[in-house]
Each structure stands twice: as structure tokens, then as C-alpha cells.
Design goal:
The complex is a heterodimer of chains A (136) and B (388). Helices cover 20% and strands 35% of the residues of chain A. Chain A contains three helices and eight strands, in the order E-H-E-E-H-E-E-E-E-H-E. With 388 residues, chain B is α+β, with helices and mostly antiparallel strands. Chain B folds into two domains: 266 residues, no CATH class; 80 residues, no CATH class. Chain B contains nine helices and 28 strands. In chain B, strands 3, 4, 7, 10, 16, 17, 20, 21 and 22 form a nine-stranded antiparallel sheet that branches. In chain B, strands 6-5-8-9 form a four-stranded antiparallel sheet. Classes of the chains: A alpha+beta (136), B alpha+beta (388). Chains A and B meet through helix 3 of A and strand 3, strand 14, strand 21, strand 27 and helix 8 of B.
Chain lengths: 136, 388
């Protein structure tokens, strides 16, 4: 059974040199979609949208962790303070993942964390400061 | 059909007033027509909740022993203006915390005070014979202050521009994050719910009009700064930022649900102010104004990558299009973001309605009308000789 999940990978300067994506594709038959990639002197981070069967995904996960790369499922990393949110909509047009939309009935801003790729665009754009990034 | 303020207030007192929000009244007018709607409804309530930089509060601290004539004062390290009497100050919403506090400013001090939090006050002075003290530091709260009232020189803008960016780089403006090459469009008005959209020529809104301000009751105290009546109109509503209100109200009755500090990235601090104005249906014309819909109200699209006051209107779009999530601009679909909150505007109009239905809020006849015309002058650099 094929599953679809988003992961955030955190690399050390050493592990950032590894060709992890190629291995995922070749060895585990996984289809990764790179949503975000950053490399700097502290290592790097990668946001992946991964598609593959459950078993391969577990093996791939074990492989990645063996390389000393921190891998976490990306579902609850960006959160919204429901009281601070004023439902203006500033986040709606700037989110590349389209994780926000306006409810056509109430005009409230609906946040779908499953679509979030943790790019932090909303955190910057949110002037009441309702959006928070909770990374480890 | 004619109705007086006295008749409305009698109905409010007896619990018989028919009050509807500016959103509710649209379908009533569509189904029944203006005449019947005007006969039925006594008051239409409006609301808006958006960034209103030109806001702040006057505070009086009371006198210490020995007393001080404050020359400089800080509230949570945010400077406040104290070039008035000894222990009076004005804390402006956009004033930023000294040091590295880009995310904290006067608006946060105001929000904290309304929330009942203790705020650190620090003041300095040269000392005088009658005010010998030179320094003071203390915590203050809304309860310890004598007077604390919001006085906002420019709020509740009648319409506003839509921001876009034609350049190749992202811009961070007071209109929010503007993506390059017309990547998005931002706007800021409650449209059909907004106070001055529903009484576009200020026939009922004037000096002394009692309003909903920040969760409490306030008043229109003057025309707002940059009061402008020169924009052309479409469907009776000016296209562009036009009339404004200066408002006043006690901080002590306010509620942080309707006053919210904002920190606009790479721009600075602002404050979201909740304002609701009741419009008395004195005649059918006033009801016609209140029936305005988002599809009837147009805003000019302005390119914020032009760093000059001579920005030209690139297009005009309706609030119905803006609120749909995207607008057609230059043959492409551009995603939109509102910066003011429509759900909060609606909540304000409903709250004001509730106050009137429950007899807690009566209408006031303006003491004087707002100006029938106003024009915004630019600031041109001048010499003394040119002006005298």
C-alpha cells in the first residue's frame, strides 16, 4: 500500500554531504518531492514529500537514521495560536503550499497543517504573530 | 419615510428597536426593496477590524512623592511622548521598543494594559523647585492609572488601495508581504461592512457620534487626518482612501478581542483597532447607502515597487473579486490576501447590534457634521521665504 508523507530532515555538516535522495530512489524505490532544501555551515535541512509503500518507507527511515540524519514527520511543526489569529488572511496568498484558505461561508482562515512544508513564510507574514514554528 | 434619533432611542429603551448588520440588510433590501427595508429597520450596524497605525493612548500616572515632572518616559522600554503636563503622556501605537525589540512597541503596551498586565514605567527629569524628583521606576496597570483613553487621529479609512508588486524582489510593506511580478495582491477594508462605506457622505456620522471602539463605547471626536473627498465615486462610494475618523474612548472599557498589537515584518509596529458605527435609518437614502455590497465597491490597485507618492492606479477591482481569493489582473490570476479581518468586523457589527437590542447603547445625534469636503496636500520642501 502506497503512502504519502512529509518529513523534515536535519543534517549535520558531515551528513549533508551524503547523496540521500539518490539512495531513497534507487535502493528503496521511493518517490521524493523536494519541497525545501537548505545547506549552510551548520549542516542543512530538507523538507521532503515522500511517496512509497509502507514497508520501503520504514526501511528508508531506518537507513536515514543510521546516517545520523534526524528525520521527523512534518505534521505539527507549524501551529496557530487560535486566540491571536484575527482571521485577516495575510497568510493566504503567500503560502507556497496553499495550506491556508478562506472558508467561503464564515470568511475565517482555515489552516491545513498536513499541507504545510514548514517554509516559515506565514510566520513572517502574520502580523498578530499567531503562527509559530515548533522545531526540535 | 422619516425617522428621528428620539424615536430610535425610545425603541431601544423599550426593547423594540429593529437592528440589523450591514451584511444582513443587503439581502433584506434585495428581497423587499429600499422603501420596505427602511420602514422596517431602525439602525444598521457596521464594523471594521484592521491595522490603524494612527492610534495611541493618553495616560495619567498620578503624582509620586516627591513629585516628578516627567521629561522622558518609557513603558516596557517603549518611549512615550511626555511634552505635556507633568505626569501625562501619549503612547503612540507605532513607537518601537528601544534596543532590539523589533517585535514590541506602543501597540503591545496598549494591549498589555487592556489585558490587565503590569507595565514597567520609567521616567527621567531635570528636576524643578516644584517637581524635585529626577528619576522614577515603577510598575503601573490600568487600575493604577487615573485616566487612560485612546485617542486615534486617523482610523476607519473609507476604502483603501490594493497593494501589488511589479518588481523582481519581494517587498515587505505596511500592505504586507508583496510577492514579486504580481505574485499576490493585498487589501485592507471590511468592504460592505465598513462604517464609512455604509454612510459614504457622512450624513449621519459626525462629531460626537457614539461608536463601538475596541470592545467599549467611544466617540467620533473629529474628522480623521488626511480626510479626503476628492476621489471619483462608483456606485456612490469613493474609489480609493477617502474619509477618515478621529476617535476617542476609555481604555478601561476595552477588550483585547478587539484591540490587537501587530508586528508587520520589516515595517514596524501597528495596531488592529475594532470600530463599529451604528447608522440610524433616518430616511430611505440612508438605507440605500447601507445596502451597498462588496460587488459595488471598488479599490484602486497600486504598485508598491514604485517608491514615490506618484503611484498610479493600475486597475480597479471590486471587494467581491478580492474576497473570492483571486483577482484577474493583466490577464492572469493573482491570489489575494486581506489584511483586515472580515470575521472580526462581522463580530463587531453583531456585538453593537446586541448592545442596542439589549438597551445598553443609545444613538447620538452628531454635535456637528464632518467636513463636506477635504483634500490632502502633499509635503513639498519649502523655504521660509516661499511660505511667508
Amino acid at each position: 500500500m502506497s503512502v504519502h508523507r512529509k518529513y523534515l530532515l536535519a543534517f549535520t555538516p558531515e551528513s549533508a554531504k551524503l547523496p540521500v535522495i539518490a539512495v531513497l530512489v534507487q535502493k528503496f524505490g521511493i518517490i521524493p518531492n523536494i519541497m525545501q532544501a537548505k545547506v549552510n555551515e551548520k549542516g542543512g535541512r530538507l523538507v521532503l514529500d515522500i511517496e512509497g509503500d509502507k514497508e520501503s518507507l520504514e526501511k528508508a527511515r531506518a537507513y536515514i537514521q543510521e546516517q545520523g540524519i534526524d528525520m521527523r514527520e512534518l505534521d505539527k511543526h507549524v501551529s496557530r495560536d487560535e486566540w491571536r489569529c484575527i482571521h485577516c488572511g495575510a497568510c493566504v496568498s503567500i503560502c507556497p503550499a496553499e495550506a491556508f484558505h478562506i472558508d467561503p461561508g464564515s470568511y475565517e482562515v482555515v489552516f491545513t497543517p498536513e499541507k504545510c512544508i514548514a517554509c516559515e513564510a506565514c510566520i513572517i507574514a502574520c502580523s498578530p504573530k499567531a503562527m509559530k514554528l515548533e522545531l526540535w | 419615510m422619516k425617522r428621528t434619533y428620539e424615536e430610535i432611542n425610545e425603541k431601544i429603551r423599550s426593547g423594540d428597536a429593529v437592528v440589523m448588520t450591514a451584511e444582513e440588510v443587503i439581502s433584506l433590501v434585495e428581497s423587499q426593496g429600499v422603501e420596505k427595508a427602511a420602514a422596517e429597520v431602525d439602525v444598521v450596524t457596521t464594523g471594521t477590524f484592521g491595522a490603524m497605525c494612527s492610534s495611541g493612548a493618553f495616560l495619567n500616572f498620578g503624582h509620586s512623592d516627591p513629585p516628578i515632572k516627567m521629561g522622558k518616559v518609557w513603558l516596557n522600554d517603549v518611549p512615550a511622548y511626555t511634552g505635556i503636563a507633568a505626569v501625562d503622556c501619549y503612547i503612540g501605537a507605532t513607537e518601537m521598543m528601544e534596543g532590539d525589540g523589533q517585535d514590541y512597541g506602543g501597540a503591545h503596551v496598549i494591549e498589555d494594559l487592556i489585558a490587565g498586565k503590569a507595565v514597567k514605567m520609567r521616567a527621567q527629569s531635570d528636576g524643578t523647585d516644584c517637581y524635585p524628583r529626577k528619576e522614577i521606576e515603577s510598575f503601573v496597570s490600568l487600575d493604577t492609572l487615573n485616566e487612560a483613553y485612546m485617542f486615534n487621529p486617523r482610523n476607519a479609512y473609507q476604502n483603501y488601495a490594493v497593494g501589488v508588486n511589479s518588481s523582481n524582489k519581494t517587498l515587505y510593506t505596511y500592505m504586507g508581504k508583496l510577492l514579486p511580478r504580481f505574485g499576490n495582491a493585498t487589501y485592507s477594508s471590511a468592504g460592505q461592512l465598513s462604517p464609512l462605506m455604509n454612510d459614504p457622505h457622512c450624513e449621519t456620522i459626525g462629531l460626537g457620534t457614539r461608536i463601538f471602539l475596541g470592545g467599549g463605547q467611544g466617540y467620533v471626536s473629529w474628522q480623521g487626518t488626511q480626510y479626503n473627498t476628492t476621489h471619483p465615486e462608483k456606485n456612490g462610494v469613493p474609489v480609493g482612501n477617502s474619509r477618515t475618523l478621529a476617535v476617542i474612548g476609555d481604555l478601561k472599557g476595552m477588550n483585547t478581542d478587539y484591540i490587537r498589537a501587530l508586528s508587520v515584518h520589516n515595517y514596524g509596529i501597528s495596531i488592529a483597532v475594532g470600530i463599529g458605527v451604528p447608522i440610524p435609518i433616518l430616511n430611505e437614502d440612508i438605507m440605500r447607502g447601507c445596502a451597498v455590497r462588496d460587488e459595488d465597491i471598488f479599490a484602486p490597485v497600486i504598485d508598491y515597487s514604485v517608491q514615490s507618492r506618484r503611484r498610479k492606479t493600475m486597475a480597479e477591482v471590486s471587494y467581491a473579486e478580492l474576497r473570492s481569493g483571486s483577482v484577474e489582473l493583466f490577464d492572469r490570476k493573482v491570489k489575494t490576501s486581506s489584511l483586515s479581518s472580515y470575521p472580526k468586523a462581522k463580530a463587531i457589527a453583531n456585538e453593537l447590534k446586541r448592545w442596542m437590542v439589549e438597551g445598553e447603547f443609545e444613538m447620538t445625534r452628531p454635535v456637528a457634521p464632518l467636513p463636506s469636503s477635504g483634500k490632502v496636500k502633499p509635503l513639498n520642501i519649502s523655504t521660509r521665504e516661499e511660505l511667508e
